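Predict the 3D structure for this chain.
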Amino acid sequence: MSIILGFIYWSTIVYKTQQTDDDINAEILELSKVYEDKGYPGLVVLLSERIERLRPGDPTLYLLTDHRYQPLVGNIAPWPKVARDVKEGWLEFQLEADERQGGDREFTARAKTFVVENRFNLLVGQGMKDLTTLKALVGRALILGLILTLALGIIGGFMMRQTLKSRLGAINLTSRKIMQGDLRKRIATRGTGDEFDELAVNLNSMLDQIEHGMEGVRRVSDNIAHDLKTPLARLKNRVEVLKMRVEQGSEEEAAVDQIILEADGLLATFNALLRIARIEYSEQRKGFKKVDINSILYDLEDLYEPLIEEKGQTLSVEIGTPMEMFADRDMLFQAFANLLDNAIKYTPQNGQIVIRSFQSEQQWQVEISDNGPGIPESEYEKVVQRFYRLDQSRTTPGSGLGLALVFAVLKVHKLDLAFQDNHPGLKVIISANPREISELERTVNEVRSSV
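Done. Predicted structure below.
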């Protein structure tokens, strides 16, 4: 826009300057014809007549001097004290106005000079007051136009930014929910057919493909667990029958006991897989009701206190104000139990385990911390994946599904799971935003009312 406005300014001033030059050239042409026809006396008479007819404020300038630049006839004096312009005798200069010019006391003039018979110097020009005024007017108009353009650009940019923020905000909000694990979320379209709708359609198609692929992988693992659970249970029963037929205290009995132990581990793994699948697909949250989180923590303390004492550990429970939410109590109890069981498993003898809960205006929070070996920060996001186990824990019993089950339970309840270094040990943080809890309660009530 600056380039366009600059071109307008330049072309306007150039046009006016050219018009002035054309007028001066026309005057000079007419004076030269008079000089050719009537000589010096005729030129002087014509100049005198024209000067007499000039009105105050008329921009036309005449000056005839001798070879020493002494004025003979003219309405300006003396000869301008400026260097001659090398371009065809053109020059610009400042003049003091007399009473006949009127207006400003000083003005800019543009003139052309030439020599008559090597004896006289003739100057014909025009005052540039109109051009100067035009320059100022056009300059101010263009500056105001540029300011207006800038203001409109800022307003338009702000409006466009708000539009982009609104459309992209909806996409980002949905994307965050999808990243949190809710693959069923889709980006809403407005039906306008614009680029944002096209982007939303493409992203939704991509999400459909991803969800379909992940559902296939989940169903394969769930079907394997379901299909193998029954024959594995039969195998265990037959091995237990076989145990009754072998001699007690023999090597055969020890081998059978080991087979039964391995079968129990496999059954526990399959049960955990099926449990996770049921949790992930429990869309209606039928078992949800008002639950006091602190009561679950007290029950955990009562249940695990004998085991903690047996291992020579200490358990400290710091319970804050009552915290209630819509939840499946059995699911939450299982999730908290898995976390506490991990803390007991990896905390050394004489170690300390702390359960702490508190509530603020922003959120409520439950912490389970220990002073065991902990988890490297780089592994925090991986330990909630199915069958993922740290290298140092591969020699201990387990299937790598405990934290995956915890993550599935908390996701259904819209709770956040985080890990922190306890220096030493690990601190597991379960937190909830009251707004999310209220939204969950509203969703559960809507589902129940629709059913």
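Residues 180-281 form a domain with the Helix Hairpins fold (CATH 1.10.287.130).
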